[in-house]
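Reply to dn_fold:

You asked what the input looked like. This is it:
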Amino acid sequence: MLTDFAQWEDSSSNLHQIHNGAGPDAESSFLVQIIWGALAQLLHLFTVPETRSSVLLDREAKIRRKEAAKEGKELNIWGPNEVIENRLTMKGILTIWARPFWLLGFSDMLIFIFLDSYGKVFGQWDFQTYQVGLAFIPIMIAYALAWISFIPWIRRDVKRGTKSPGSVAPESRLEWLLWTVWLEPIGLIGFAWTSGGPSKNHWMGPMFFSSLIGIGSGSATGGNGFARDMLAGIAAIFAGPFYEHFKEPYTLEYPSTILACIGVAVAVPVPFLYKYGPQIRKSSKFAQELAAEKQTTNLKHQVRDEKAQTTEHIENV
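and this is what came back:
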């Protein structure tokens, strides 16, 4: 579910380009993105259930204290976050912010640098401003296809987890990504060498490869919004000069090729993590914390189920 809304929010950058191609003013473009992002957040707020175990335990503790108070009792049960003083420390905030940069933040920066080349590339085919905007539609479609392609894999893991709790390893989420992650560098290298203009190939060439980039980037995790937006802002400073630095005849081909090489470096860790994930998690403090939270949640569910069964048994007697 979180991936669904990540795709929604990711598509806002392309929606802006499509809308901006029609020639509206800057205020109108930003307004469209704000509305799109607000809708995503509202859907997230009202449709996605809470899954963090510490928050669920806090809620359960409050419910039990409230029930005990109705019976005139004082129950000394507290959730993990309720007993922590100064929950938001500067060190904790910086740690949370830093994690996305170590995951996929730089992958998104590749995409934003690549998007900056659209006007230059399609301008060779005499695309007008609105036509360049429409050229972003394949990427939007690719985002949707990437999301749809993951549904069978997600349902499979949910089914396995329901049938046998704890049997689904975290690495199983990477199985389809093992294949789709390579579409980003493939799309970038293909886009690079079909950017030579009408004398070399049809404009459908770079447009097709841009859709592969959309599928590759759309298949990655979406929980890195801060990293994505910050790196995109930094990339906007040098993306233009980057695509103007190289001399003819490969002014546009070389920059995208460099991005493709970086894309390969970003994709390489995926199969490595899939194969050696269990060993890495054993030495990861963060992974151990997640495992402990998961175990706590499972115990809570077990206690709740046993309590429900006991209550049902007493009522039947």
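DSSP finds 15 helices and no strands in the chain.
Hope that clears it up.
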